[in-house]
Every structure is written in C-alpha cells, then in structure tokens.
Amino acid sequence: MWPLRYIFSILFHDNLTKTHQTCIKVRASITLTTKPKNDFAHHLWNKFIRLSLIPLTLLLLSCGGGGSSPVYVENLDTSVSEGNNSNGSCPQTNWSSGNVSIDHNGIERKFRVYISSNYKSDTPASLVLGFHGWSGNENEFLNNQTVRDQLDEYNYIMISPLGLGSGEPDSSYASWSFRGSTTGLDGDGINQLVANDSEKICDTDSTPDYTYQSCAGIAENTCSWTQCLDDDVSFVSFLVAQAQENLCIDADRIFATGGSNGGMFVWELGQNENTANIFRAVAPIIGLPHRGYLDGPKKPNGLSAILVTGMRDTTVPPGDWDDKSFTTTSNGEAFYYTGASAIAEKWAIALDCDVSIPPKIVDLDTASTLECRGWDNCRDTNSYPSILDCRGAEMGHTYNLDDSWPLIMDFFNDR
Predict the structure, then answer these.
(1) Rg (CA), the chain
(2) SS3 348
(3) DSSP string covering 213-275
(4) Distance from chain centroid for Cα 131
(5) Which of 104, 22, 101, 24 is nearest to 67 (CA)?
(6) Which end of the chain has fewer CB atoms < 10 Å from its terminal CB, N or C?
(7) What is the pLDDT of residues 188-238, one digit of tens each?
(8) How far apart are CA 206 and CA 188, in angstroms?
(9) What is the pTM of this model?
(10) List of residues 6+ apart from 121 with CB closer than 8 A
(11) What is the DSSP letter of 372?
C-alpha cells in the first residue's frame, strides 16, 4: 500500500513530472576548499579555479562519484560571495538552463536552472531558489507556465534543487530536512499546557512510520520522515556560492520559496544563522514549522516573508485567523505544526511591527483569490507590509501557482 504522504503529494502537488533532461555535470572537489588567507591569495586561487574548470570538470565526469558521508558534516567553504552584486561585477556565465549537479559532502546534489530570456551576462539578476514538496522533484515550480513567464518578465534566475530520498542516496520520497523532521522530536518537550502532551511531532498511534534508512541512530521515534544523508542547510549555502561563481547574480536580491515540505524548509533557512543573511525575502507555501519551533529569523533586523496557506488544507492546516495555537494534520495522520498566525506574528516582531494591533487586510496590487493580512507599521514596509499572511478560503494542500505566484513575485519585487 502506498504511504498516505506519497498519495497526498501525487494528488495535490502542482505539476509533478517524469520529464528527464540532459544533466550537465559540474562537480566540485571537497578536498580543495582551504580558504586563502589574504585577498591576493584569494585572487590567485580564483584565477586557478577558473583556468582549471574545464579540464577538472572533464576529469571528474570520467571518474564518476557518489559515496556518502555522515549527516551534518560540513567540510566545505560555503561562504556566499559579495563580489558579483549590483555593482555590475560578474563572473563568466558557465551555467545555462537545464539540469546541473554538484558534489556536497561527497553526495551528488542535483538541481534545475532556469535563466530568464532577458538575462545578460554583465547585468546582475535576481535569484530565487524553489524547493519542492515531499516526494516531489525539481520540476514542480519550473514546469508551470505562469512561473516561467514571470521569471522572464522580471528577469529572475530560478534554481530548483532536488531533495534526497530514502535510499543511499536516491530521489524516491525526496525530502528536505529541518528541525524535528529527522529526530521526530518537537521543540518544546512536554508542554504542561497541552493535555496528554508528548515530546513527539506526531501521534504515533495514527501516523505511519516513514523513517528513512539514513536516519537510523538519529530518529528518536517513528515520527521521523525526512532524509539524514546530508545537511540541507549547508547544501543551500554551498549551492548559492556556486551559483554566484557561475552566473551573474545580484547578491542583494536572493530569495527562497518552497511548497509543503519545501515551505517548511524555507522557514528553517530563515531561522538558521548560517543561511538567514543570504536572503532578501522568503515565501513558504502550504508549509509550517513543526510544533515547538516557533522562532524568529536569525537575520539582523528581521527577514521579510509572505506565507501562503489554504484554509481547507488538512495536511498542513494553518489554523483560524488570529489563532496562535498549534495545528494538527487531519487527513488520517496526526502531525503537529506551528500555526500560521503564530509564526507570522513572531517574524513581525523581528521586523519591529507593533503586534499589539491586530493585522489588517491588505489591498493587493495583483488579482488574487487570496486574502492577505499584515501590519503596516513594520520595518522595510513598501507597497506591501514586510510580513504577509495570505490564505485561500477554498484552497487545500496545493501550491495554486497560477494564483499565488504572481502575488509572490509582486512581494519580491517590492522588497
């Protein structure tokens, strides 16, 4: 019998596809990562890397790759470059639209690149990372015509990575790991204010065991449901650094979005001090942190966010407006999540919003069936408030990209 989470992914995730494209392999050695000690050495190092890129790539392609490494072992220089930004200084464009792979911690990580039709190799472009849902793939966003049209219109590059699966490694049940999803533990332990509470992120009596083989020794219970092969947060840092070496990217305009499991991971990227500063704004779609992980962003002065959820979502329910309690999956399983109102308010506080005033309905500049609420007295507020909580009254566990994506792009463009 197929697991319920797989069935829900097939039924509700937008544009899952089995389309295969030519994979352009770009491997980066994890043994040549010692950071130069001064700027001149750094210049020579970069020159050496560029001159060596073609023969090194051909050599690595002939050698293959693979293998595995312990989870959360970070042995790479993943610092994000500030060199190619809005001042017009750009590296040579080495990547093109298509499928690419790089090595991170000895594991092949795959992703799809989409370069806007208006891209110019000497003009920095905005970058958005798009993370698929559980058991999804790198095509969930980019196979949508509305997404591609708007990326072209506003000159955005999109990179959509493929998560790691349940094998050693593979892409079956591809997933993104975030706090609680690997251990199965919630963030607040036994909460005395919750009747019959436990320290788990699910009710094990009604929730199937999805624990991946790679999480043996890490999972504390059968609520674990994502991969433990690699540190996804470290991978994102490395991916952005690699993108800046191979494309003309505005380092001040890097964004992240994700759906379902990918949306949960986007919150993690903002809550992690190693990645929060990378992003200008984020847009989680139908994804919320697990219960007990109600944390603000680690970026100084806050991080702008637009949250999109569906009021008819039984997989990751947002809760009622202004209800700050945790929510529970009601699709035959029972996972526990932070409520949408609670996380929106937490991030609003980091943006100096006056949360003593309830958020109000926001007039949208684009046609949408979503209702959005926010505070208009926050830091970085422009046409839109810097934190938006948007919900579809008839929307379930679906990305609803034809409706949600134009609004997300409006929000990013307003930053």
Answers:
(1) 21
(2) helix
(3) GGGTTT-SSTT--S--SS-HHHHHHHHHHHHHHHS-EEEEEEEEEEETHHHHHHHHHHHSTTT
(4) 5
(5) 104
(6) N
(7) 877 766 666 789 999 999 999 999 999 999 999 999 999 999 999 999 999
(8) 21
(9) 0.81
(10) 90, 92, 93, 248
(11) E
